[in-house]
Amino acid sequence: MVERRVRPLVGEPVAMDLLNTRWAGGGVEHDLLDSLDGLRQWLAETGLDARFAADRATLDRLLRVRGALRRLREHPGEAGARADLNDALAHGCVRRRLQEDAEGGPGTPAFDVEFDDPSWGPAWTAAAGYLDLLRSPDRIRGCANPACILVFFDTSKNGTRRWCSMAGCGNRAKAARHQARGRAGRTA
User: Fold this and answer.
1) Do 128 and 162 lie in a common domain?
2) Same domain flag for 26 and 48
3) Is 164 helix (H, G, I), strand (E, B) or coil?
4) Are residue 157 and residue 178 in the same domain, yes or no?
5) Per-residue pLDDT, 26
6) Burial category of 118 from C-beta neighbours within 10 Å (exposed 0-12, middle 13-18, buried 19 and up)
7) What percent of the chain clears pLDDT 90, i.e. is strictly above it?
8) Element holding 17 (H helix, E strand)
9) How many beta carbons lie within 10 A of that of residue 48, not counting itself?
10) What's the predicted TM-score (pTM) here?
11) Cβ atoms within 10 A of the Cβ of 70, count?
């Protein structure tokens, strides 16, 4: 059995979670998607493991979308990144339908997503999720810690979240401010 890698900031929307499969810690950059075992873990953590296989084609397509998302974060108008994202989106489509209402009403809206090749499923899901997040682009943020490469979708009520987590980067920033105040008080 392969050891599960502990990574920070899981549970973000799928597109953000995909970007967070790369993180820095202890002066080292980590990449969960450096193997099929890492892909298996990510699929399980995002709830996609029941629908998609952890194979080389899926990993390659997911890495391509992760690269496109990373480039779009750094250079929002980059044509190549946009083309890579659109290429992934071209491999799936949403079929809307009206399903029977359990209470005998007029029906409930539903949809199915179909792929021309199932190995595009996770990449398409992340790309489509990113488009959904772009409805509030100002809520897509990077951690305020310059040493942190994690991203998140700010769901706070007032939209002022700054840190990937208060327990991690937020706490370190508070501790650094406290130490700075203590040093300033001793030199005055």
Assistant:
1) no
2) yes
3) coil
4) yes
5) 76
6) middle
7) 68
8) helix 14-19
9) 18
10) 0.85
11) 16
Q: Whats the size of the chain, residue-wise?
A: 188
Q: Are 43 and 54 contacting, i.e. CB atoms less than 8 angstroms apart?
A: yes
For the beta carbon of residue 64, count every other beta carbon within 10 angstroms: 16
- Token digits of residue 154: 């700010």
Residue 141 near residue 155 (C-beta atoms within 8 A):
no
Query: Quick one: how far is CA 81 from the chain centroid?
Result: 16
Q: 67: number of CA atoms within 13 Å, CB side? A: 11
In a domain, 165, yes or no: yes
Domain, as residue range, for 42:
18-90+118-134
pLDDT of residue 147: 84
Nearest to 65 by CA among 11, 8, 17, 18: 18
Using the 8-state DSSP alphabet, how is residue 38 labeled? Answer: H
Q: Is the dihedral of CA 132, 35, 58, 72 positive or negative?
A: positive
- Spans of the chain, pLDDT less than 50: 178
Q: pLDDT value at position 101? A: 85
